[in-house]
Amino acid sequence: MNNKANEFSSFAETIASLGTLTKLESAVSAAIKSSRVPPKETRKLLKCLSVQEAGNTALFQFMRDLFSKVGVGELEIIKNDIFRYDFAIENSPVCKLYPHVKNKKTCYITAESLSQFFSKDLSLPGTVEETACRNAGDARCEFAVSLQPLAVYQLALDDVDKTIISNVMEGQNRARISESLEMADDEVLFRMNILKRYKILNDDYEMTEIGETYHKYGEGMGGAEEDFQAPWKDMAIISDAISASTSFAEAFTETANGEPLWEVKEKDIVNLADEAKKSKSFAELLSKQVKSDMEE
Ligand SMILES: [Zn+2]
């Protein structure tokens, strides 16, 4: 009998937790598949100057609904730097899947969901790390999303911003830019402040080195931008996709529980729980198990 320390107190609990993780994973992948966000909506989030403003965007509100529907908890946005967004979840349901863990972060599935949402639905690839976790003794779970700067620049600045950058390069002042773009002075100022935040302009609204590099190499990148309906215009489609995928996962888990297809040893289940944390998906986990069975 293997007495190695383990997150799960019993065999039954292990199976139940793995079943829930499988369901969560199916829900996440169904949700991500049906939630591509049009670039112009992502840009609104990227241009927010404060956390409050970011929290009020249609995109973040949608994100909060989506993650809550999937079952990983209620997201709160707690930091919006240009290349880094942090989120918090109070009382994460994912934490409860590991009731006996102490001093260890456990919510890899939430981190992975955030990473997929940013890269696949927002076209903002990056890395996600759980920086605090209730199971590690913190007050709540927190996640840091670090984005690839080039992708952020590509999405954050639109054609008007690019025109303003060109005009600044040509030495025009704000009054001239306002006149030539036929745009109110305060809107030009608002846009220039965003360019300042993105380090394209310095405190004196002059071009920085980053700005010059962007102007030289970055302007033509991206090409014509796609436009399509925002996913929050039809939440029913997403809800249906999520419930279809979770009931499929449920049926699969029930069949597996009801009629064992092979004899399972408790030692293997302990290993399986360890592997589950290292694996990116249930399919990967299964393939690892099959491999290790074949090696025996
Ligand atoms: Zn956590």
Outline of this structure?
By secondary structure, the protein is an alpha+beta fold. It contains 13 helices and 4 strands.
Can you give keywords for this protein?
296 residues, alpha+beta, disordered N terminus, Arc Repressor Mutant, subunit A, Muramoyl-pentapeptide Carboxypeptidase, domain 2, four-stranded antiparallel sheet, 13 helices, binds zinc ion
Helix content: 55-70%
What general form does the structure show? elongated
State Rg: 24 Å
Oligomer: single chain
Number of strands: 4
What is the ordering of alpha helices and beta strands?
Answer: HHHHEEHEEHHHHHHHH
Average per-residue pLDDT, rounded, comes to 85
Describe the protein:
The protein has 296 residues and is of the alpha+beta class. It has 2 domains: 1-148, Muramoyl-pentapeptide Carboxypeptidase, domain 2 (2-Layer Sandwich); 157-218, Arc Repressor Mutant, subunit A. Helices cover 55% and strands 9% of the residues. α1 (11-33) runs antiparallel to α11 (235-258) and α8 crosses α9 (185-197). The model is unreliable at 1-5 (pLDDT under 50). Bound molecules: zinc ion.
